[in-house]
Specification:
heterodimer; A: about 750 residues; alpha+beta; Dipeptide-binding Protein, domain 3; seven-stranded mixed beta sheet; five-stranded mixed beta sheet; 18 helices; about 25% strand; disordered N terminus; B: about 325 residues; mainly alpha; MetI-like fold; 2 domains; 13 helices; globular
């Protein structure tokens, strides 16, 4: 153990004070990341990335390491481990529907509440976590990822979870539901297993021996396979026959998701930062073949099983405020647990590995070290390039199609996505980013949402290869990026939010104009949901790129109409973006003289019987070459973004790499050296120069080195990430050289920058 | 039947076989449960709607009857149109043409080296049958041929990359090329860099492959080395090398030619495991990634092209049989 770390608090305080006076801390006023160069290597596996780490040819292994690597890493003094609980959720999905196709007409056992409760009693979550997940998991009792525990209902989780492992209670529940012992011997009878029955149970619906439960256990994930086995073996011992299929997802997909022809299935989801997924996964709206909800089902009369739960679930998504959503979610979770719709199991705990030589790794809550703050702050003492190894190659590097994780591992460094608190340090709370501030309200008598967005005025696009500064990232670029991506059905953004595209509109409510200046706009949505706030976004690209380099994406059209206005202009195609609208020869102003509603042009003024000429880009067939496109060598000019780095070289495929250079025009200032642990945004006073009306005025803000940062150092003080990571080890608090240990230098680093701000709004 | 008639007949057979392979390819990918839509539904996650699902079905042609899809598929194969990758949305030809040169270089070098060394050593082992050299060669060949290739790969990495640090652990371009200004400007520099990166995977493949050639050649040569015509050749006073290479090996080479023909298919298909262990972006890794990501157009194209090449190579081998062994009559 480091001797310095053992010093008494008094000595520690003295050292901190004296060190802060003695040590020269340069105040960084530069913009962009701390490191000048970043190279991302594409490899074929985590093992290959980890080998690069051990051979000193990579600095960060860009994926959570496996069990074998973990065992090797804890004996390697040069490797630091960063723990993270991810935003995923595993559960035993139970078919709550009244019947299943294999046994048409018969009431399904899993449609009985007590039967489902019995199943829950048979899952020993402690064993699942410790043995099947080897401890690399955090238990959950409601279908919400562990990092979002604030959304759970505390009255039915943890010690309050009503179905803690108890086979005897399970047997009692089965009997209470009418599934009593029959006369056929149970081949799985096990006298050593509490509650085990000598005879198979009778189905109360038919009066005969139970039909075997149709069970699917995913064999491509051993954790799920063993959990499934625990459940069906327990059921069998309790006299419930099971017909089991242990298979990969390709086999279970059709019967489970398509046909709902199953009783239980070991499922798992990767989820977002807010648990709006509970609406999609369990509400009746989404219960259809191959839909996301294959659980809730209908009752004997064909009505949804859980109308009350549906109300709460819907209210999670269609909430006017954040607080309302959270309350509705908690209410829903209470009912969910009571009905025992599924058996929530765990969120994965994983470790990321990086070299001790790397300083400034920031492990964002729920995301781990791979986040924008790490790539802003991480550096090596010798100033050499930061080397990041990822376990696959980007397939497209194309913002239209790249939803693949490995594409985004490169693209996220080059391009800004969305921009409104898209990756806050603590993902459950919002903070400013490229959107300086936003104001959420309602319109249409409180029935619909409306958001005013203010952009920062200091964000620029930057050229690839040369790094030359280009135009501002202003509201036109922001809106055009969002509109074009939503306009294209096969763009991943539009696909992902397909149901909500209709909700995304720009209209002029009162005719006084919605765009207040180049950096402020109000967006009207035609339904009520706080979560629409995040929909207006996408990959931010300059309009020049969208319109000039788009190839077959759009076609430029000039169309003339003689008609009475106000009315909708019957354009020949869907609008990707409007270039110009003129009345005779007089240009009309967007959002004042005309609006653009759900892909249609509406002239709001009165121009009877005169010619109106519309020049616009029409949605065509998506394709062509796009930023980061495969044809980088041929089309370098279009790989252009406003991200923290720009691309200088790219070799596609496994074994290839992307070479990136620091963007000196990035909106965010270089984090003060050896400071800022939490990257929490601090709101400042309002910017009166940008006030719109009494209610709407954006706040200023900045990052700040303060007590919150010191608290992280205090919490993690004297802990290390080499070897088996200490319980309170917190990589982000390891600021100063001599990595892998949070010590006095780290505390002194913070003191040295005490109360200093950076990235303040302009 | 003359040679021309034989070739014409074989071409007809070959076309029928290609058609059957294409049909089989169509059937297996259509029988795979869930695959195509599953991938998209998984991507879209919890936001899938019935409308979107119908749209996806239309997009992929699943709204068309099976026979229409089949005709379209055959037509696309004839026109060498493999469609676009689900994952990258790039044309499949392009994906293949990016990976193929890497594989041809790696597999070409290692296969040719293994073949030459294996056949020569196989002949020597057979010639010295029962000797310590024979026993040693057979033992080594059996050992290298039996060891899982990924294990050989990992040993190579552990020794030459991790311990000795002589080579990089993976990739097909040296890491120094990724640094601005690091990419070589001469062809020689480029070749040396690529050879450097190919060394470990090529040796791995060589170690694995050469044992097979040694054993096969030894067995073939042993069958012919005791034939009367070999004794006659010796009795005529021919040099031993001439006897071995001209009389023995030539007559023993028919199974070897068949094996070479089959190897061509593997050559194009790439060495999936070796390429994965060494993060070497070739056809093997492309196949692996396509399977992993359920990228059916790529899988279908690779399977089809590989089968096609094996069929063509077998056809060429059949013709070669006659050249090497005049006793073989076409017909």
């Amino acid at each position: 153990m480091n001797k310095i770390a053992k010093l008494s608090p008094l000595t520690l305080a003295l050292i901190i004070i004296s060190t802060s006076v003695i040590l020269p801390f340069p105040v960084a006023a530069d913009q962009g990341p701390e490191t000048d160069d970043l190279v991302i290597y594409f490899r074929a596996s985590v093992a290959a990335c980890y080998t690069m780490l051990t051979t000193g040819t990579a600095d960060i292994c860009g994926y959570e390491i496996g069990g074998l690597q973990y065992i090797a890493a804890i004996t390697n003094p040069n490797i630091v481990l960063a723990p993270v609980v991810d935003f995923g959720m595993y559960e035993v999905d139970i078919n709550n529907n009244y019947t299943i196709p294999t046994y048409p007409g018969d009431r399904s056992p899993t449609s009985y509440k007590q039967f489902r409760q019995a199943m829950a009693f048979l899952v020993d979550k402690a064993t699942v976590i410790s043995d099947y997940c080897a401890g690399f998991a955090a238990q959950i009792d409601q279908p919400i990822p562990s990092p979002s525990s604030g959304w759970m209902n505390a009255n039915s989780t943890g010690a309050n979870y009503p179905y803690i492992y108890n086979p005897v209670a399970a047997a009692a529940k089965l009997t209470a539901a009418g599934f009593v012992e029959g006369t056929t011997p149970n081949p799985d009878y096990d006298p050593a297993f509490p509650g085990s029955t000598q005879y198979l149970r009778i189905d109360p619906g038919t009066g005969n021996d139970m039909n075997p439960l149709v069970c699917y256990c995913r064999s491509d994930d051993l954790r799920r396979l063993y959990t499934g086995r625990m459940l069906y073996q327990g059921l069998r011992k309790l006299g419930v026959p099971c017909a089991v299929t242990e298979c990969p997802s390709s086999v279970s997909y059709d019967p489970v998701m398509g046909d709902f022809n199953y009783h239980f299935y070991t499922g798992g989801w990767s989820l977002g930062r807010f648990p709006t997924h509970v609406y999609n996964l369990y509400h009746d709206d989404w219960y259809f073949s191959y839909g996301p909800n294959y659980v809730s089902g209908y009752n004997s009369t064909g009505d949804p099983n859980y109308p009350e739960l549906n109300t709460y679930l819907k209210a999670v998504y269609y909430a006017a405020t954040f607080g309302e959503a959270m309350t509705s979610c908690q209410d829903a979770m209470w009912l969910f647990t009571d009905e025992c719709m599924t058996i929530p199991l765990w969120s994965s705990l994983a470790f990321w590995a990086y070299s001790k030589e790397v300083m400034g790794v920031t492990n964002m809550i729920g995301a781990g070290p791979e986040n924008g703050y790490t790539f802003m702050k991480a550096y090596k003492e010798d100033g050499s390039a930061l080397r990041y190894a990822i376990k696959a190659a980007p397939t497209a590097m194309n913002v239209l199609y790249s939803s693949w994780y490995y594409d985004r591992q490169v693209e996220d460094r080059l391009t800004l996505y969305g921009g409104m608190s898209s990756a806050p340090y603590a993902r459950a709370r919002d903070q400013a980013d490229i959107v300086q501030d936003w104001y959420v309200e309602t319109w249409d008598g409180g029935n619909k949402s409306k958001v005013t967005y203010w952009l920062r005025k200091d964000a620029y696009f930057v050229e690839p290869v040369t790094g030359n500064q280009r135009e501002h990232l202003n509201m036109t670029a922001w809106l055009m990026s969002a509109f074009i991506q939503y306009a294209l059905d096969d763009c991943w953004l539009a696909s992902a939010y397909y149901p909500y595209i209709d909700h995304f509109i720009l209209i002029d409510e009162d005719g006084d104009g919605d765009v207040f200046d180049d950096y402020c706009v109000e967006v009207y949505y035609n339904d009520l949901s706080y979560w629409f706030t995040y929909l207006c976004g996408g990959a931010m690209l300059p309009p020049r790129i969208w319109l000039e380099q788009s190839g077959p994406l759009t076609s430029y059209e000039t169309e003339e109409y003689t008609m009475d206005f106000p009315d909708t202009v019957p354009l020949t195609g869907e609008i990707a973006w409007i270039d110009e609208v003129t009345y005779n020869v007089t240009p009309l102003t967007m959002f004042t003289d005309y609006n653009w509603i759900e892909g249609e042009l509406v002239i709001s003024g009165t121009y009877t019987g005169h010619n109106v000429t519309v020049k616009y880009w029409k949605v065509g067939t998506a394709g062509g070459y796009w930023p980061g496109g495969y044809d980088f060598a041929t089309y370098p000019e279009i790989i252009e973004g406003a991200g923290m780095y720009y691309l200088t070289a790219y070799t596609a495929g496994i074994g290839g790499s992307a070479t990136l250079k620091r963007n000196p025009y990035y909106w965010m200032e270089t984090p003060l050296e050896h400071s800022e642990v939490d990257f929490y945004w601090v709101w400042g006073p309002t910017d009166e120069s940008r006030r719109i009306d009494v209610d709407r005025c954006p706040r200023t803000g900045w990052f700040y080195v303060d007590m919150a940062d010191m608290n992280y150092v205090k919490m993690a003080y004297n802990t290390q990430g080499t070897g088996i990571p200490d319980l309170f080890w917190f990589p982000g608090a390891d600021l100063a050289p001599a990595g892998g240990l949070v010590d006095v230098y780290d505390a002194a680093s913070i003191v040295g920058h005490w109360k200093e701000k950076f990235s303040e709004t302009p | 039947m003359g040679l021309k008639s034989y070739i014409a007949k074989r071409i007809v057979y070959m076309l029928i076989l290609i058609y059957l392979v294409a049909t089989f390819n169509f059937i297996i990918f259509n029988m795979m449960p869930g695959t195509t839509l599953q991938k998209y539904v998984a991507n879209v996650g919890s936001k899938m709607t019935p409308e979107r699902l119908e749209e996806l079905k239309r997009h992929f042609g699943f709204d068309k009857p099976l026979h229409e899809r089949y005709i379209l598929y055959i037509n696309n194969l004839i026109t060498w149109n493999f469609g676009t990758s689900f994952e990258s949305t790039q044309s499949v030809q392009k994906e293949i043409m990016t990976a193929l040169p890497n594989t041809l270089m790696l597999m070409g070098i290692s296969e040719i080296m293994a073949m030459i060394m294996g056949i020569l050593l196989g002949v020597v082992a057979a010639y010295r049958r029962g000797s310590k050299l024979d026993t040693g060669l057979v033992t080594v060949s059996l050992s290298t041929y039996s060891i899982p290739i990924f294990w050989i790969g990992w040993l190579m990495i552990a020794i030459f990359a991790v311990q000795l640090g002589w080579f990089e652990a993976g990739g097909f371009e040296p890491q120094s090329w990724a640094v601005p200004g690091g990419r070589p400007i001469t062809i020689l520099g480029w070749m040396l860099g690529r050879l450097y990166m190919m060394t470990l995977p090529a040796i791995t493949l060589f170690i694995f492959l050469f044992g097979g050639w040694v054993l096969l050649t030894r067995a073939c040569v042993l069958e012919t080395i005791t034939e009367d015509y070999v004794t006659t050749a010796r009795a005529k006073g021919l040099r031993e090398r001439t006897v071995l290479l001209k009389h023995v090996l030539k007559n023993a080479s028919l199974p070897l030619i068949t094996s070479v023909a089959l190897t061509i298919g593997f050559l194009i298909g790439g060495a999936m495991i070796t390429e994965t262990v060494f993060s070497y972006g070739g056809m093997g890794l492309l196949t692996y990634a396509a399977i992993f990501r359920t990228d059916i157009p790529i899988m279908a194209a690779i399977f089809y092209v590989t089968a096609l090449l094996v069929i063509v190579a077998n056809f060429a081998a059949d013709l070669l049989y006659g050249v090497i062994d005049p006793r073989i009559k076409y017909g």
